[in-house]
Amino acid sequence: VGFVCLLFVSTYAAGTHFVLMQTTDIHGWVSGHPHNATLNADFGDYCSLVEHLNQRSVDEDFEFLLFDSGDLIEGTGLSDATPIHGQYIFPIMEKIQNYTALTIGNHDIGHASTVQLMEESFIPHYNNYKSEKGGKYLTGNSYMKDPDHNFIGEPYSLYHTRFGQKILLMGW
């Protein structure tokens, strides 16, 4: 099971407010649950919520941190009944640019073709902002057996808040 660990590596600034939001185990459920009206928010609703929280963090001066703990696929026909599992789910997930960090789940690495797709497009999408601080897609315990490859993502990243704190992010 994937998760992202946060370690604050600088002193806490008095009065700084953090809001953390985490998704996990989406398992392809981007269309909501139409059979259950109380659980029927879809991925568009989620994107809207994230955009509103991000804007609110700017307007109200707090730090908004958004994480995903993996298992994006294996659960619906949209994620599984395709030649490459996740080929439609990963592009949908990429619509959210505000992730502070994401990590891989055990269901995301069940097929070599899925891992290849992730390595070729999904992970670079989030790690294209990579600098000396690292990327956003963190997988400190997931690596390729191929000796020419290391970790599937980055093992860690150093995140700088807009208020000057540094946060060490690690993905498992």
TrEMBL record:
One GO CC term on file: cytosol
Q: Which InterPro entries match?
A: 5_nucleotidase/apyrase, Metallo-depent_PP-like
GO biological processes: nucleotide catabolic process
Q: Which UniProt keywords apply?
A: Signal
Which region is the signal sequence? Answer: 1-15
Q: What are the protein's GO molecular function terms? A: hydrolase activity
SUPFAM superfamilies per the UniProt record, alphabetical? Metallo-dependent phosphatases
Return the protein name: Calcineurin-like phosphoesterase domain-containing protein
Q: Tell me the organism.
A: Vannella robusta
